Amino acid sequence: MPTKILVVDDEPAMQQLIRMGFRKPIRKNEYEFFFALNGKEALEVLTATPEVGIILCDINMPVMNGLTFLSQLRESAELRKVIMVTAYGNMENIRAAMNGGAFDFVNKPIDFPDLQITLDKAIEALIQLQEAERTRSQLLSAEQELVLAEQKARQLRELDQVKSRFFTNISHEFRTPLTVIDGMADQLRDEPERWAISGGELIKRNSQRLLRLVGQILDLRKLETGSMTTQLIQANVRGYLKYIFISFQSLAESRGIRLQFEADEQEIWMDIDPDKLMSIASNLISNAIKYSEKGAEVRMKLSKEQEVLQIVVSDTGIGIQAEQLPHIFDRFYQADGSSTRFAEGTGVGLALTHELIRLFGGTIEVASEWGKGSQFTVHLPIRRQATVQDPLQAMSDIWVDKKEEGEEEVGVSVPEAEDHHLPSLLLVEDNPDIIQYLIACVGERYQIQIARDGQEGIDKALELIPDIIISDVMMPRKDGFELCESLKTNESTNHIPIILLTAKADIDAKLTGLGLGADAYLTKPFEKAELLIRLEKLVELRRKLQSRYQSLEAPNPSEHPIIQKQDAFIGAFKQIVENHLDDPMFKVPDLCKEIGMSRPSLHRKVKALTGMSTTHFVQEIRLQKAGILLQSTDYSISEIAYMTGFSTPAYFSKSYKSKYGESPSVKRKA
Ligand code: ADP
Question: I need a surface site. Which of 162, 334, 452, 507 has the fewest CB within 10 A?
Fold first, then answer.
């Protein structure tokens, strides 16, 4: 490739001169010359031939002189080598040119050997410059590639997170009904008479929930691949939508939510696909109910303007945060993906709703205020071409039994515990079917109390100090991990065994659970037998603990952090009693004050750990101490009675005898 050289000179004779002077390198294709008569023309040549690397430029020219041209080159002057041609000794011009970024200068009239040397020098500098430039741009593009790769990796990671969140949710969504189905099937097999009706209902309802879930996911897929077909009939959409809305009445009632239906017209006839319209409406209504609290109101309002149907579903529920709003129609998106989110879900519903509405040429919009409520507005074009039919008859079977989550929640009835000696069990779970199944599993062996979310679980645990806790992980307000952490770090409750039930099958969750002190962890769906074994093991552990604290001596140290905590608690308890050993006025309320626990909490904790009431355990410590004194000292029996805090020697003798079967005097003789 020849070096491209631009000669800028207003004398046309110059061109001739150059061609003559450099004829050899021109012939050898070492140089290729371009010519311009002034700075302006030169700029044009450069625009047309940007590869020009060397410029030989006169200073005095009409239109645009050499110095102006140089200044116009600006940055590109650095990427080229400009040699100025100046009148001999015109220092002022030479200085101006050099300051303006020229590489070198030659004098007029041109001395070719001198010009050749200058050109060689300029070409060498140019090559160096180009190489440096190449390296720089290579570095730059490597850097850009890195940035791009990072961007891509981040996008992949995000997609991955969305997917993994979806799989976690979907597995939760599947495992919960599966637990009920699987477990109820066992109950039915074992006691067919007893569970025939309620068990059968639970199984039916939960398998339909699964079917609908699968249906939703498949529908979404069909919509995305454009293979969704429609089955249009003409019907009075007001009647149909009202029917769908009203079918949520009992669910709403069971949650303390009011429903309100309004329509401008008595009848609105249009073509609909009953299944798909059912899906759209049910999703919006069930979300409105799902994301609302007691006392809220859910409304459906229909109106018709020209040939467009408007359906507004609004609620006065929890609302959606502004930054989440643009995403809620995305697939698998959940405004709150945490395990404490307000309600269970997969994030499929709204994406499906959106796609279905688009399929019918409609639109959906959302307006929402965090903490105040949400409003979804659907517009559907009205057409009347299909044949008139009853939508309820045209609906496919999947809806017929009952509509999407439109069924009434089963009122959970906790069996009245008849036997108060049964251990107490606190069940922390937000799904009524799971509660019902668990009651079916263990209701006969435990007195059951129920809390519907983690916070209620913590409150009830502190109030009741149950013997054992079974808790779900994903729940509103506080999740199972928070419950575990809170109870295991509280002196009153840190001895209570906790079994976490969860659909999250991943190991991380398991470790988190155990790290926070959960005593066992069951993954849904679990077998009844597995649950019973876990419960039994934990009750057995409690029996071991009780025998651990029977004697006055400090037990052998344990490696188990929970046991260590109990050892410390019992140690502190005994120490306080011993510190006040000879004070008969030191009573349980004083003990509570020193230990920093309320009387009922202390009572339940002591009972759980020792099998004795607080008073009884204090007495036990006094008597054991007295036994030691009887054997190892010469104090009289009455002295020992006073030393160990008994108000009278007679009371001491009586208590001693009832515990050990012999009176202190007999013991002393022996
Ligand atoms: P999900 O199965 O989680 O309910 P959806 O696709 O139906 O999935 O909804 C996506 C998310 O939008 C939900 O997780 C919820 O956070 C939010 N959302 C939908 N409807 C409402 C509503 N009426 N009020 C508050 N939040 C809502």
Answer: 507
Q: With contact defined as beta carbons under 8 Å apart, do 450 and 407 qualify?
A: no
Query: Probe ligand 1: pick from 289, 291, 315, 375, max atoms within 8 Å of CB?
Result: 291
Q: What is the DSSP letter of 460?
A: H
Task: State residue 402's pLDDT score.
Answer: 40
Residue 158: how many other CB atoms lie within 10 Å: 10
Helices (H), 255-343: 274-290
Distance 334 CA to ligand 1 centre (A): 6
Token pair listed for 249: 């009445």
- Specify the pLDDT at position 408: 44
**pLDDT < 50: residue spans in the chain:** 398-411, 417
The tally of CA atoms less than 13 A away on the side-chain side of residue 54 is 25
pTM: 0.54
Q: Give distance in angstroms: CA of 321 to centre of ligand 1.
A: 11
Residues with beta carbon inside 6 Å of ligand 1?
283, 287-288, 291, 315, 317-320, 328, 333-336, 345-351, 374
Q: What distance separates the 2 farthest-apart alpha carbons in the chain?
A: 143
| Sequence-separated (6 or more) residues with CB below 8 Å from residue 40 | 63, 64, 69
- Tokens found for residue 109: 């009239």
Residue-level length of the chain:
670
Distance 229 CA to ligand 1 centre (A): 26
Q: What pLDDT, on a 0 to 100 scale, did the predictor assign at position 9?
A: 92
Q: Give me the pLDDT at residue 163, please.
A: 67
Q: How many Å apart are CA 21 and CA 18, to the nearest integer?
A: 5
